[in-house]
Design a protein that fits this description.
Chain A is α/β, with parallel strands linked by helices and 293 residues long. Chain A contains eleven helices and 13 strands. The termini of chain A are far apart. Chain B has a four-stranded mixed beta sheet. In chain B, strands 2-3 form a two-stranded antiparallel sheet. Classes of the chains: A alpha/beta (293), B alpha/beta (420).
């Protein structure tokens, strides 16, 4: 029997999502406590985005139930959407509008208008750290970091209690990535409940209170980052600095015999993203790993 | 409160969608400037007066009148009436090029050579005895005039059927006027005892061809073209825009972001509909205004009926666009299908050519299209100045088809929501 200890903002119970013959999310149950920053870690195709899309109401569930706050996503989707702020993985803004116009548009979708909308846009433009000139330029002229910040601001307009951040730092350089981490930490300090999906262990370690590692639609490990790191350190890890870091490397590593799992993490010593490969026999598999990078 | 919020959402979606067109140069061209561009083309092509049009018909004249001919066993070389004929051709604004002989297509300097190269549109050959026949110089033994007809030859370019038809009609019209003038002079100059006899013989049967008073206005060709272009506007602005709007948003992900906001799918649809309708009306307004300002189109403006017909036609166009937009995978696919459907469709709505000249199957297909009904209704209202009751069948057809097509578009849109 499930024991609910603290108030949860998100409850996922036995959720499955099937696309024809493919099971993207396989009977997952988990809960996220109020004010918690919860990480969903895993390679591409693990089911993280599918799970967040179901929580946000964008995808229907094949089976199971999801509750956000007091509301069920199946029975009361509009109420869930009211209290949920979603930052999608891709930058989803109208590139022919400027930052202010984008925020005004999304604000009006969430029912804001008049003075309240203006004040909120003003606050969030400060949050995006865009200068006066940039605010008036079309989003298409912004750098990746600027777009990311506006992308997050658009999800904050209605002051949501629960936020879903789907790989918010994907494709950012280390400097912009660290700037975004600070933003995410400030959101946590405001008491928001946050679900963060990522494929980078260091990001999960830096930001999250708890992390669920997903693979093939299932949660294969769940705990605090330190617990998970301790578990990983008990095994042998090869650290590789690839010419170009890419989530595809994780897929490639799956094809190497003897590799238990792999992930991408920022290495402070190397000052770049590295590929961590977990195995029982590092010496044996190294000749197979290197040529595939 | 809920209604106020929904109105706020609809207006945000409509405004953003509309700005998407206004801030996209390609979209502006195809939705707003293309109708203007089109009206300029047809205006400059068909908007001028009849005399100006005639001046562009180049007639090659081989005037053999004045050459030596035998009349009553005597030689004659009178060219008076032939020269008059040529002068009259020039007076009514034909461009006349003179040639000494008809010749053949390979001999430079002859009329046949010129028409084969497209330098002239038609050739009129005036016979050598033109003046002699028309001045009653042929007589019998008793000295009485022998009725002898003058025979003009007209050659047109068979490779340009439309041009040949227009040229032929224009030259026939001129000849008919010339003959009339000639008859009046001939009757006037006839001896008093012959006058009544000549009068009847010269004109034994008269047929007058007049234009029926259909429009109450003196219309130019462009005036007939304007109602047809309204049908084209629906296809360019309504169908094409609607087919792109959701597909583009889905490709860019903005549609998904709208779906995760507390917005009803029908609110999104309504916002898109309002934006598409605004584009259609703006496009139609630009086209009509440019017609009025640049070419002084002379039409009747029953504004409520015109607005109603455009609204119903636009709903049909937007319905088709929604079906395309919802069922295609991305904006490229939507664009391709939209072009494949809309380009041929333009030729079946009676905007460029009357449906009556098309094969039966094409006519039947054209008649089923709501845009054809809109063009018919607009022709009745704007050129024939008929009242609303004359277009009730077309309006009813438009209403039913718009309801069906928009409903199908809405169903396709609902289905597309499941594919996010």
């Amino acid at each position: 029997m499930r024991r609910v200890i603290r108030l949860n903002d998100i409850e996922v119970n036995s959720v499955t999502k099937r696309f024809e013959d493919m099971v993207a999310v396989d009977n997952i149950s988990m809960s996220v406590e109020k004010g918690e920053l919860f990480g969903l870690l895993g390679p591409n195709g693990a089911g993280k985005s599918t799970l967040t899309k179901m929580i946000s109401g964008m995808l229907n569930l094949t089976s199971g139930t999801i509750k956000v706050g007091k509301y069920s996503i199946q029975d009361d989707p509009m109420r869930v959407k009211e209290i949920l702020g979603v930052v999608p993985q891709d930058i989803i803004l109208y590139d022919y509008l400027n930052a202010k116009e984008n925020l005004a548009f999304y604000g009006r979708l969430y029912g804001l208008s008049g003075r309240k909308l203006k004040d909120r846009i003003k606050e969030l433009l400060q949050f995006t750290q865009l200068d006066e000139k940039a605010v008036k330029r079309h989003v298409s002229t912004y750098s990746g970091g600027m777009k990311r910040r506006v992308n997050i601001a658009a999800a904050l307009l209605h002051e949501p209690q629960v936020m879903l951040l789907d790989e918010p730092t994907a494709g950012l350089d280390p400097q912009n990535k660290h700037a975004l981490w600070e933003i995410i930490q400030s959101l946590k300090k405001q008491g928001k409940t946050i679900v963060l999906t990522t494929h980078m262990m260091d990001e999960a370690e830096e930001l999250c209170d708890r992390v669920a590692i997903m693979d093939h639609g299932k949660i294969i490990a769940l705990g605090s980052p330190s617990q998970l790191v301790r578990k990983v350190k008990m095994e042998n890890t090869i650290t590789v600095v690839p010419d170009k870091s890419s989530p595809k490397l994780i897929e490639i590593m799956k094809t190497v015999s003897g590799v238990k799992s792999s992930y991408i993490a920022y290495d402070e010593t190397e000052k770049s993203e590295t590929l961590k490969v977990i195995t029982d026999n590092p010496d044996d598999i190294l000749p197979d790993v290197v040529p595939r990078l | 409160m809920k209604l106020k919020r929904a109105i706020n959402q609809v207006s945000a979606i409509a405004k953003t969608d509309f700005l998407g067109v206004l801030r996209n140069k390609t979209a502006i061209f195809f939705t707003l400037l293309f109708p203007l561009f089109f009206i300029l083309i047809i205006g400059f092509t068909f908007g001028q007066s009849g005399e100006e049009a005639m001046s562009r018909i180049v007639v090659g004249v081989v005037n053999l009148d004045g050459e030596l001919v035998a009349v009553n066993a005597a030689d004659s070389s009178n060219s008076t009436i032939g020269d008059l004929f040529v002068q009259a051709l020039e007076t009514v604004n034909f461009t006349v090029h003179g040639y000494s002989e008809y010749g053949d297509r390979d001999t430079n300097g002859t009329a046949a050579y010129a028409i084969s190269r497209g330098d002239i549109d038609a050739i009129v050959v005036i016979p050598a005895n033109f003046t002699e026949t028309l001045s009653f110089q042929y007589t019998n033994n008793l000295g009485a005039p022998v009725p002898t007809k003058a025979h003009l030859e007209l050659y047109v370019d068979p490779t340009d059927t439309t041009g040949a038809l227009i040229t032929q009609q224009s030259v026939f019209g001129f000849i008919s006027g010339f003959v009339k003038e000639y008859q009046e002079v001939a009757i006037e100059q006839a001896p008093p005892d012959m006058k009544a006899y000549v009068e009847v013989l010269a004109d034994p049967l008269t047929v007058s061809i007049n234009e029926a008073d259909i429009t109450g206005n003196d219309l130019k060709w462009i005036d007939y073209m304007i109602p047809g272009t309204l049908g084209l506007v629906l296809i360019w602005s309504g169908l094409n825009h609607a087919s792109m709007t959701i597909a583009t948003e889905r490709t860019k992900g903005t549609f998904q972001r709208m779906v995760i906001a507390p917005v009803s799918p029908m609110v999104v649809l309504l916002g898109k509909l309002i934006s598409a309708l605004a584009l259609v009306y703006m496009s139609a307004f630009i086209m009509l205004l440019s017609g009025v300002l640049l070419f002084q189109v002379n039409l009747y403006w029953n504004i409520p009926v015109i607005l109603l017909a455009i609204f119903l036609g636009a709903l049909s166009a937007i319905g088709i666009g929604l079906i395309i937009s919802s069922l295609t995978k991305n904006e490229e696919a939507a664009n391709s299908i939209s072009v494949i459907i809309s380009v041929p469709l333009q030729f079946f709505i009676g905007a460029f050519f009357p449906l009556s000249i098309m094969p039966a199957a094409a006519q039947a297909f054209g008649e089923t299209l709501p845009f054809t009904k809109l063009v018919n209704a607009m022709q009745k209202i704007m050129t024939r100045n008929l009242a609303f009751d004359a277009v009730i069948p077309e309006i009813l057809y438009l209403a039913v088809s718009s309801l069906i097509l928009f409903l199908l578009g809405t169903i396709a849109y609902r289905i597309s929501l499941r594919r996010l």
